[in-house]
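[job 0412] stage=complex_fold ligand=NDP status=START
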Amino acid sequence: LTAFVSGANGYIAAQLIDQLLHLGYSVIGSVRSADKGDYLVKNFNSSHFKYEIVPVLEKEGAFDEALTKHPNVSVFFHTASPVLDVSTVTNPEAQVLAPAINGTKNVLASIKKSSPQVERVVFTSSIVATWDRSQGIVRATEETWNPVTYEEAVTNKTVAYSASKTYAERAAWDFLTQQKPNFTLSVINPVYVLGPQTFNESVNNLNMTAKLVTNVLDFKPNEPIPALEGRFIDVRDVAKAHILASQKDEAQGKRFILVADFYNNDTLVNIIRKNFPELQSKLPVVEKEADVSINMELKDDNARNILNIDYISLETSVVDSVKQYLTYKKDN
Ligand code: NDP
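[job 0412] stage=complex_fold status=DONE, emitting structure tokens
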């Protein structure tokens, strides 16, 4: 089987490709530049991995050429989308909304036009496309949608990301009903993704969300622990969910909320203190663990019943990330 993965150098995509290669798939990954593709070729070190350069997602027909070159592709994973630090966003429409939404439309149009043999498409959406935070409590199921408006996102960069995921995912489902392509669609809606990098070398260039764990290593013993909490899923389970969603007949036409556990900075500090005694003197002591997020209600029935993954625990995820980070830093 041959799979195409857009945004191949991303944190989640690299784990996805690694698992696909181990399962015997051939993989074509799209990246924005040759240096990113060459990094993957070097690190995957597999004759079954190749890359194509697709520099601008939002340009119409962006994927036509890359797909025409690979007539054996039967499954497409669309993961590429802007995941930016809000402080770097000056133009939400150009930097966030357009690549996410038009990129998704272009991918699907190219597959329909240039790869009619593709049977399955898996789209990486997010929990932020499903939740409604307007009632004071955050609620989401695999049927609900974020009520954020496009107009709001154009002028408010703090909601641009959630709107980009919401409208990109909506565009994908609309494409299915309006264009009736040969492929079926399933959508992955992960909560906050943590866990190790596919390649040790990548700890030098951590993705936005993976930094959350290594940031804890900079907390000081005599300083208060910043309040931060959320829901967690390990990156390796996110990768696995993409593959299972592409393989299972019952997964077609469905959305999957991926959520394993909750975290807050107190739990992260305690996990690290317990598993890395050598760091205890460098980290704060948690007097009383803050209560974990209680104002969030997520229903993940599709994921539990259809994908049925035995999720990696927060402790394992954090320990694996910190171990990789410390080992790599020590050796280099
Ligand atoms: P990364 O930032 O590591 O990966 C994002 C990928 O998308 C990179 O390959 C990046 O390419 C590409 N990309 C970003 N912007 C553009 C653009 N304008 N044009 C072309 N390519 C672009 O993030 P993740 O791996 O975490 O994210 C992957 C997907 O998962 C995204 O769709 C994200 O929304 C989703 N997601 C992530 C969660 C998380 O907690 N991490 C939670 C829920 C969903 P380049 O390196 O060239 O910028």
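The pocket of NDP is lined by residues 7, 9-13, 32, 36, 57, 79-83, 99, 124, 126, 165, 190, 192-193, 207, 209 (CB under 6 Å).
[job 0412] exit 0
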